[in-house]
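Fig. S4 source data, part A: sequence.
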Amino acid sequence: MALEIERKFLLKDDSWRAAVSSSLRLSQGYLTSLTDGAKASVRVRIGGNLAYLNIKSMRLGMSRDEFEYPIPIEDAGHMLTNLCSGAVIEKIRHHVHFAGLLWEIDEFLGANQGLLMAEVELNSEDQTFQKPDWVGDEVTEDPRYYNVSLVRHPYTQWGFE
């Protein structure tokens, strides 16, 4: 069984951009009904010339079950267009290596424009790691920042003061 241990953070500034090693535009949508009580989300994602079907447990926190399988890109395109529940999330994923870890920074587009979030995958929940200066508040436990939530409640509709 695959276990993802991931922490999510907002960003303080754009200084991370100077350290980007690669970037990839991603499109992803959810095939499952996003109703309360669901045990897992099922999403389809296209990034570059590759496509994946991903199943992730629907629980808060840094550790979740996750399974990912490659699928034909044509199938993924059809699913995104015809089978997804809610909006399709568009984002650019930037990779930044810092202190021995890979940080993935998602720069959201469309209805989630303006949201920048950094994620780092760990080997254990108690793993210590150095945070870059550009990392801000942790949002790992905040469900609003989960992609499955951003489909229903996009960042641009949060009503900032």
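Fig. S4 source data, part B ends here. The mean pLDDT is 93.
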